Queue: 2 jobs
Job 1
Amino acid sequence: MDFDDEQDRAHALSSGDPVPPSDWTGFGPAASMEAIYTAHQPALARYLRRRAPKQDLGDLVQECFRRLAMAKGGKLALIEKPGAYLVSTARNLLTDRARADNARQASLHHSFEDKDIAGPDPHAALEARDTMRRVGEAIEKLKPQTGSIFVMHRFDGLSYEEIAKAKGISVKGVEWHIAQAMIAIRKARADTK
Amino acid sequence: VSERDTEAAHWFARMRTPGAEADRAEFDVWHSDPDNAEAYANAKEDWLLTGGVAEEHLAAHRQVPSKATPPARARWGCRF
């Protein structure tokens, strides 16, 4: 399935979907979402991978599914074509990002011409660089399994399920490792203050 | 790192799972405490910040296990 290809897109949304909506209704919203996630996450990630920086991939995929979960008052069964909904959401997110980037560029241009004649604050720049270095070192020092799982999710855009399968652990286990990584990063940032 | 920061990290990780909406009500109760909300916002900020980390810091976790380095005598190809 590939959202770039009209033929594939039609196939992705056909009644031949791996788990048709009518089969999901009896298992509650969480089960439905898991089924949708399993069926559509790989294609959505592929679609976004070609259009967004890889470090943003995980967040974009997550946001698409969050919006899907919130749509129609959380009644997933009311969404006939979740694949189409997800790709349309992804397009909107990418458009919003492009607009925000343009606005930011315009703002930077304006401030350069009008305000920042004296140049950027070197102290703030050094502080920011130091924070990034500390965060980077914190990631580097993570235990191998935690570090590998964090990199797979945050930078390679792999879902918890994909990582769980690759590592031979449970989804809950992946969640735990992500939390451990976040705690280490928080500690590194707290130490800078 | 405070207990609250630890809780925020676990909530942040939990809310990224596909079935997160099932935990939404419990999360909302926890998040309604302003201190918890601040800790969660910090976690989100940390997450965004990691996007700018240099590749050199990630390399160690990307390494594919390689064959063990051959012993020195094998590399030099002579034995005494």
Job 2
Amino acid sequence: MALRAWFRPPRHVLTIFIAVALLSGCALGWLGWLLWQQDNAVDVQRRRERLEEAADRAVAVMDRALQGIEAQLGPAPVRHLPEGVTLLTTGGDGDIVVKGGPRLIYYPVAKGLPEAASDTFAEAERLEFAGQDPAAAARAYQALSKSTPPPIRAGALARLARVLRKMGHLAEAARTYEELGSISAAVAGIPAGVIARDGLAELMAKEHRADGLRRHAEAFRADLKAGTWQLTKEQLAFYQSEADGWLGSRTAEDADALARAEAFDTIWRDRRVDAGVSRRIIYASGSPALALWRRSEGSLDVAIAGRSFIEALCQEAVPSRDVRTALTDVEGRPILGAPTRERDVAARAAVSTQLPWTVYLSTAPSASAPGSLRRRLLLALFAVLTGVIAVGAYFIQRAISRELLVSALQTDFVAAVSHEFRSPLSSLAQISEMLARDRFPTEDLRRRSYDVLVRETERLRRLVEGLLDFGRLEAGAALYRFETFDVTEFVGTVVAEFRERAAAQGFDVELSAPKVELLVRADREALSRAIQNLLDNAVKYSPECRTVWVDVEGKEDRVSIAVRDRGLGIPAHEQRDVFKKFVRGAESKSLRIKGTGIGLAMVRHIVEAHGGEVVLASEPGRGSRFTMILRAAGEAS
Amino acid sequence: MSRIIVVEDEPGVAFALEVDLKTEGYEVMVATRGDDALELIRSEPFDLILLDVMLPGKDGFDVCRDLRRSGVRTADYSADGEGAGGREGARPRAGR
């Protein structure tokens, strides 16, 4: 029932409006959603196209780079080798030569350095071991160390140092090792430099020179790591363990360096490798290494590159930060990054590109979507439209609610006015009828009936005039005849007139006004109506206290006329609204106090037309005070 | 002589009723407010109460309810404020 009441006119206007606003809002939202979806689809398509283009470009760049390296495999001189690429060549004699780029950490075979024949030192060694004559042996080695060919010198110095150590001549042994270190030759297949460094370290350990030993061992370890000497894997492992022993810590494993060395080792050893040019990714020590090689009769040329080169190549091939690159080898093992499972991935398989890897490109999560600006604009547009609809709906709804309220107030007003009319009319009808039927028994009663007739007629006249005045004020058609007069005297007259009427209801009006002239420029009739309305109200809303007060005051250029009562008072939340037309306080309704709700609205109209203001001070249960503040006039005209 | 109290806030209507009923030979009293009427009825006996509905303060129904609660059984005619008014609209509310 309550719901049905809601849809009854005039409230159905509001319901219809809300429905229309909601419908249009929903339609707008749906439209926006569709546009958004469409835009998204276009965006995905574009992103895909861009990825495909980037993939083609990347493959071309990578292939060109690898071809550039491959062109340098073989007898041609090294022109420009990208960073991180080691170019190696092996001749028919099995010697490995690093043509360019960083050296490998170890090689399949040690470098074939010149070495003296072992029987060169047979006589001296016989003295050293069989003869047990180290001094004689030392002399013999010393004599040999003076010879010109470096291999013999190296062999003699290494053995001399050994004998000196045995004899306890440690300082001399150290000098001998230092001399040995500068010779480019091998002793027992090991570079002289390595033997010298190892021997020196052992001397330092023997002499307990901890600081010197650490510095020496660290430098040795760094040189081993840098591939200073061409050692085999086993030699490297041995000398690294020597350095580890002196330093008391394991050499940090360089997976990339190991992978590169192992990759070369694999290619070098792989007898199946056919003649011609090949590319391959080799996994070693958990790290990928790229190997490019060319085998021709008797010679093998290899380019080895590690992870850093592959990364740099990817960077060059796919410079955009918005695109994520991943590479896998032919068996699907990740080389760089990991291929995503997203739908928008552009892949180029190794088989079709001749690259040693498969390339995957996908959009980086951080990438700014190309349509994001357009979409933001779209979103902003819809937000604005929704906002406009919402704000519009709110204001229209407010306006309709207000109109509904006014219409309800007007209905109340019509009822109130009808009642106001009926009361004097009832009296008039009844008394007129009694007079017509000659029902008054005495002359005195008949005369009193005339008084009642006069009073009720006057009441009707005032009511009609009040309504007409209000109508004129509302229509803005009220004409004021302003004149300057003394307000004290004027209020006195109005109060005196009202006092007569109020006396019939048992009310008294007390006037307090200064004895001086207070001039205002006002319309006498309008001001009189305003005061009377306030007095009417004071009497109506003062059921207990039968006195109302009127205070006139002049202060500087202001004249105030206050009407106060000790009646019901007005609650704070109603104080602003009581000046609105047709509005009556809640208590006036519950206590059935008669009135039309236009009195105070008229007072405000009139006072504002005079350039003044009405101030209300009221407290429920203690009464109200309405003060009209007007501008004082200069002098009487 | 039967005593009637007229409770009516409109002085004109009250005056007319008072004169009319007095002419018919009743003893008539007038009260303009519900509270005044209650006080009078409780202190003096009346044979009939003519009660207006639209009264300031306590309305006719409130006055009637209060009277019945305090045990007054006097017949009362409520002048229906919503009707034509006057005696035509009056309807009996309770018997003696």
